[in-house]
């Protein structure tokens, strides 16, 4: 089986697990995420506006926004890294690419902490995303400039033992679920 086929199969299984966790109402992870972000008050953070069955980081993002800038990803083009537009609770939003909303007024920030959505994760910091490579390119560029913390945010059910990864896949530094905070030691 090719790497692409293995990734497609892993995504399909992970989407099913994520959907089941979402429908079961597994909540509480935003509290764990708020606790983690409290250690980075004032540091520029990026979160995301959840789509479909993604776990919702908005409560933790709103809390972080009271202490410093919080951005959300904006896709400029396929194959390009993400940029981040400053978000605030109740700010005006417009439809962006791939069904994700973005702030109506674009004010770019450069985050040092990224809350990263994902399809599947491993306890060693592996992350399987949607397949566009946006976060991999973005994290690679940010990490070339300064230390950048990547926090995977997911339901515990999204954990996988053996993810098909490539050398270009950027590792997570931490994973936050509704059950626990997993600090990846490197």
TrEMBL record:
<keyword id="KW-0436">Ligase</keyword>
<protein>
    <recommendedName>
        <fullName>5-formyltetrahydrofolate cyclo-ligase</fullName>
        <ecNumber>6.3.3.2</ecNumber>
    </recommendedName>
</protein>
<dbReference type="GO" id="GO:0035999">
    <property type="term" value="P:tetrahydrofolate interconversion"/>
</dbReference>
<feature type="binding site">
    <location>
        <position position="49"/>
    </location>
    <ligand>
        <name>substrate</name>
    </ligand>
</feature>
<feature type="binding site">
    <location>
        <begin position="7"/>
        <end position="11"/>
    </location>
    <ligand>
        <name>ATP</name>
    </ligand>
</feature>
<keyword id="KW-0547">Nucleotide-binding</keyword>
<keyword id="KW-0460">Magnesium</keyword>
<dbReference type="InterPro" id="IPR037171">
    <property type="entry name" value="NagB/RpiA_transferase-like"/>
</dbReference>
<comment type="similarity">
    <text>Belongs to the 5-formyltetrahydrofolate cyclo-ligase family.</text>
</comment>
<dbReference type="InterPro" id="IPR024185">
    <property type="entry name" value="FTHF_cligase-like_sf"/>
</dbReference>
<dbReference type="Pfam" id="PF01812">
    <property type="entry name" value="5-FTHF_cyc-lig"/>
</dbReference>
<keyword id="KW-0479">Metal-binding</keyword>
<dbReference type="GO" id="GO:0030272">
    <property type="term" value="F:5-formyltetrahydrofolate cyclo-ligase activity"/>
</dbReference>
<dbReference type="GO" id="GO:0046872">
    <property type="term" value="F:metal ion binding"/>
</dbReference>
<feature type="binding site">
    <location>
        <position position="54"/>
    </location>
    <ligand>
        <name>substrate</name>
    </ligand>
</feature>
<dbReference type="GO" id="GO:0005524">
    <property type="term" value="F:ATP binding"/>
</dbReference>
<keyword id="KW-0067">ATP-binding</keyword>
<feature type="binding site">
    <location>
        <begin position="127"/>
        <end position="135"/>
    </location>
    <ligand>
        <name>ATP</name>
    </ligand>
</feature>
<dbReference type="GO" id="GO:0009396">
    <property type="term" value="P:folic acid-containing compound biosynthetic process"/>
</dbReference>
<dbReference type="InterPro" id="IPR002698">
    <property type="entry name" value="FTHF_cligase"/>
</dbReference>
């Amino acid at each position: 089986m090719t790497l692409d086929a293995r990734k497609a199969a892993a995504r399909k299984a992970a989407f099913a697990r994520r959907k089941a966790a979402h429908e079961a109402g597994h909540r509480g992870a935003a509290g764990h995420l708020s606790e983690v972000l409290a250690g980075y008050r004032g540091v520029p953070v990026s979160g995301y506006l959840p789509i479909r069955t993604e776990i919702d980081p908005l409560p933790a993002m709103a809390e972080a926004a009271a202490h410093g800038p919080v951005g959300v990803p904006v896709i400029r083009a396929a194959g390009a890294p993400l940029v981040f537009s400053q978000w605030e609770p109740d700010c005006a939003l417009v439809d962006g690419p791939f069904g994700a909303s973005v702030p109506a007024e674009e004010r770019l920030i450069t985050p040092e902490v990224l809350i990263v959505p994902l399809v599947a994760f491993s306890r060693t910091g592996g992350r399987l995303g949607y397949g566009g490579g946006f976060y991999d390119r973005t994290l690679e560029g940010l990490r070339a400039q300064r230390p950048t913390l990547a926090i995977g945010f997911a339901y515990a059910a999204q954990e996988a033992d053996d993810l098909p990864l490539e050398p270009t896949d950027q590792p997570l530094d931490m994973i936050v679920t509704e059950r626990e905070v997993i600090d990846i030691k490197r």
